[in-house]
């Protein structure tokens, strides 16, 4: 905070002039809020980001990762954290980032990103946790708890439906309301309602034609009224187009400074922006400044003796632990009778791949961190190995085919014999970034040819992957016995890889995203990133495994998949349901036993299927998970709670979550495609009534507990004949009544009588300002 005598939000707001209030709703500079010195209002500093602190040290320039930033621990990217399925670990990473932020007098860290990975082509998927809203919500919440426990505010981003980088500042995500609530808003809802984040960041894109920053449905009706959010809505950097429209829509703070404060003053004077709306935004910005001041008195001008100490060595060790915990062992086939991994740390080893010497461990754009140190995989492997470890680059990072050919032949020659070959492959920096999308899911052709030739020369090949978004392994993985995906693993990448390959650590990750065989198999294939400024989310709620499962499209590796170095059994599944309808809860218990020979961790995944749904629902959805670590032979009874949301769907007509009584299957699995045990349970309760109108069919009237008797009374015996007739029963009652000469006034009485006891239906329009 610049200025250390900040006064309380409530006191200050009433004493400010209209001009001062307007100034507070836009940044003071690229990263600070606006101070009002005469009124004793300090400014606070915000910085990226999700992978580690990016506090810019020089001229800010633009936000896309340009300009220097102070050294900070570069933790694994969100893809890796998401694959850890470990809220405790993610919370600890959040805490460490917050301590580094406190040491740099940063009040708000612009993280976490909880957008859903709608398509694997999104260039920014490395910054997001999962394709699944439950997993994203729980891990995003853990990150926020970690940050805020240290007195640093979070900024949950990018709200909402910001799922593509192409045309990201204009694209309209055209999504139906049920899909928004069940898939694209659910993780935000979880973080907001359980984590009280200091800020939420409104995204660049439009939702159903209205910019997120101006979208009163999103920011007022959903975020504030339905979820009770009372923090600051800050715009993404450059997401405001019109200051008054943004304030009306529900954005409190435009970042960085945008336009002229006079536009806000003029709008108030002209009556197009109610002053009460401006006052609310100012109150929230001042409350944020107060919150920051209370957590870190003095802010940016506090004396050095108040500074937080950072143990960089401990943070590096945490980055190393997290990198191993998020790495997914996709396959580990036997070679010569035993799984290839882990290696013993001795014996002849060859390391191949430029990425082993020049690692890629973080993504490009605004999340880019200036790391405090980098563990290079080749160095770490050499250090871990008893014998000499030769190296062959095998390919160039820019994929120049001439040079690649020569490097490839040299690598293949070196691989002959009975060495174990560790081949590090991955996506070059230019393949994925914030700001643009990918066009395919393949590794560079030179790398594919390399691995194919290597494995033909020597079957003992371990592929270690470095990539932010997924790569499809179809062209090369069948012959390769072991594939370990480390994602973009942060600055401890090298030591983490050495830990994993030698078995000092186990690969703790499970896929947070399905890996398909082909791009054409992906759910949003037909409309990603979109056309003519619109992306139509035609796949609806069928995102990720929800799509592959119902379409029976086998993926290369399913959601939730990942191997360790030991084996587990899950037994004695029991599910106890209590309560009914919208108060239902269920307690799921299962015994997990380590049946292998090494200590390791198992991720219990609980999926729920709705067998009686009146809307199209996914075959199963992840609703709870837990990670347990067990010694060989040890068992633990794991208990997980399912709340009403585990059974609910968003009713598009009633525009609310409903739990439809009926039968559900609760399963535990090793992945979405590998369910190990299932129990069918019944949820009791009153059936969901949708309101009857003149447009409701005779069958719908007949089936309704209130409408049925009303119909019988009004139509007498003919009512029963009509409902049992397969053709007549499908006719809307209003049409039938008209044809039968039934008086319109009587029909309206009937509809009113049915409505008196029914639920209220609304028009179901989502996302547009109304
Ligand atoms: C990104 C945000 C980031 C902001 C500030 C924007 O371009 O979308 O995620 O926090 O810049 O760097």
Automatic annotation (TrEMBL):
One of its GO terms (biological process) is carbohydrate metabolic process. GO terms for molecular function: beta-glucosidase activity. Pfam families: Fn3-like, Glyco_hydro_3, Glyco_hydro_3_C. Residues 602-672 form the Fibronectin type III-like domain. Keywords: Hydrolase. InterPro entries: Cellulose_deg_GH3 (IPR050288), Fn3-like (IPR026891), GH (IPR017853), Glyco_hydro_3_C (IPR002772), Glyco_hydro_3_C_sf (IPR036881), Glyco_hydro_3_N (IPR001764), Glyco_hydro_3_N_sf (IPR036962), Ig-like_fold (IPR013783). It comes from the Bacteria. Catalyzes the hydrolysis of a non-reducing terminal alpha-L-arabinopyranosidic linkage in ginsenoside Rb2 (alpha-L-arabinopyranosyl-(1->6)-alpha-D-glucopyranosyl) to release alpha-D-glucopyranosyl (Rd). It is not able to hydrolyze alpha-L-arabinofuranosyl-(1->6)-alpha-D-glucopyranosyl (Rc). Belongs to the glycosyl hydrolase 3 family. This is Exo-alpha-(1->6)-L-arabinopyranosidase.
């Amino acid at each position: 905070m610049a200025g250390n005598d900040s006064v309380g939000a409530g006191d200050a707001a009433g004493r400010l002039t209209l001009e001062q209030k307007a100034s507070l709703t836009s940044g003071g500079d690229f990263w600070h809020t606006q101070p009002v010195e005469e009124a004793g209002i300090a400014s606070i500093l915000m910085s990226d980001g999700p992978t580690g602190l990016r506090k810019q040290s020089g001229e800010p320039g633009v936000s896309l990762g340009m300009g220097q930033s102070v050294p900070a621990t570069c933790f694994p990217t969100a893809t890796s954290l998401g694959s850890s399925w470990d809220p405790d670990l993610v919370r600890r990473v959040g805490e460490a980032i917050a301590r580094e932020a406190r040491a740099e007098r940063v009040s708000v860290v612009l993280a976490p990103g909880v957008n859903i990975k709608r398509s694997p082509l999104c260039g920014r998927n490395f910054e997001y946790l999962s394709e699944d809203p439950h997993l994203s919500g729980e891990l995003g919440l853990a990150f926020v708890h970690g940050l805020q426990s240290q007195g640093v505010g979070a900024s949950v981003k990018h709200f909402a439906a910001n799922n593509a980088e192409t045309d990201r500042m204009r694209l309209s995500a055209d999504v139906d309301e049920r899909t928004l609530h069940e898939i694209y808003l659910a993780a935000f809802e979880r973080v907001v309602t359980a984590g009280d984040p200091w800020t939420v960041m409104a995204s660049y894109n439009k939702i159903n034609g209205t910019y997120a920053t101006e979208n009163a449905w999103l920011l007022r009706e959903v975020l504030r009224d339905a979820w009770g959010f009372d923090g600051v809505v800050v715009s993404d950097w450059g997401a405001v187009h019109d200051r008054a429209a943004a304030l009306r829509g529900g954005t409190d703070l435009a970042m960085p400074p945008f336009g002229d404060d006079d536009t806000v003053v003029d709008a108030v004077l002209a009556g197009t922006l109610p002053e009460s709306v401006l006052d609310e935004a100012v109150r929230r910005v001042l409350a944020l400044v107060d919150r920051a001041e209370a957590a870190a008195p003095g802010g940016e001008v506090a004396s050095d003796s108040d500074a937080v100490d950072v143990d960089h060595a401990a943070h590096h060790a945490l980055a190393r632990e997290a990198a191993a915990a998020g790495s997914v062992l996709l396959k580990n086939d036997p070679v010569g009778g035993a799984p290839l991994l882990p290696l013993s740390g001795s014996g002849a080893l060859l390391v191949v791949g430029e990425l082993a010497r020049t690692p890629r461990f973080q993504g490009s754009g605004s999340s880019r961190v200036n790391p405090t140190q980098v563990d290079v995989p080749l160095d770490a492997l050499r250090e871990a190995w008893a014998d000499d470890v030769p190296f062959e680059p095998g390919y160039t990072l820019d994929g120049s085919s001439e040079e690649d050919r020569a490097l490839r032949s040299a690598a293949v020659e070196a691989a002959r014999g009975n060495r174990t070959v560790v081949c590090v492959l991955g996506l070059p920096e230019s393949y994925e970034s914030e700001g643009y999308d990918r066009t395919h899911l393949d590794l560079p052709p030179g790398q594919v040819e390399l691995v194919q030739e290597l494995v033909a020369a020597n079957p003992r090949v371990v592929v270690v992957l470095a990539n932010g978004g997924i790569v499809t392994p179809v062209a090369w993985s069948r012959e390769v016995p072991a594939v370990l995906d480390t994602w973009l693993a942060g600055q401890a990448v090298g030591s983490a890889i050495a830990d994993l390959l030698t078995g000092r650590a186990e690969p703790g990750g499970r896929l947070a995203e399905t890996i398909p065989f082909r791009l054409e198999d992906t759910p949003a294939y037909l409309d990603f990133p979109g056309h003519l400024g619109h992306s139509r989310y035609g796949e609806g709620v069928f995102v990720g495994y929800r799509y592959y499962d119902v379409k029976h499209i086998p993926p290369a590796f399913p959601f939730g998949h990942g191997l360790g170095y030991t084996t587990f059994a899950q037994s004695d599944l029991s599910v106890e349901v209590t309560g009914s309808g919208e108060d239902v809860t269920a307690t799921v218990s299962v015994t997990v036993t380590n049946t292998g020979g090494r200590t390791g961790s198992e991720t219990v995944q609980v999926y729920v299927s709705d067998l009686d749904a009146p809307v199209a629902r996914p075959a199963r959805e992840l609703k709870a998970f837990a990670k347990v670590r067990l010694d060989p032979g040890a068992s633990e009874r794991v208990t997980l709670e399912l709340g009403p949301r585990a059974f609910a769907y968003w009713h598009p007509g009633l525009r609310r979550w409903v739990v439809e009584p009926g039968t559900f299957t609760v399963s535990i699995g090793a992945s979405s495609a590998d369910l190990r045990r299932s129990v069918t349970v019944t949820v009791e309760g009153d059936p969901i009534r949708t309101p009857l109108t003149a447009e409701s069919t005779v069958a719908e009237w007949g089936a309704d507990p209130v409408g049925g008797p009303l119909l019988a009374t009004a139509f007498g015996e003919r009512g029963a004949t009509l409902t049992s007739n397969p053709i007549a029963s499908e006719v809307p009652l209003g049409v039938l009544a008209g044809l039968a000469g039934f008086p319109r006034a009587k029909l309206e009485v009937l509809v009113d009588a049915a409505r008196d006891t029914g639920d209220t239906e609304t028009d179901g329009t989502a996302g547009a300002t109304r």
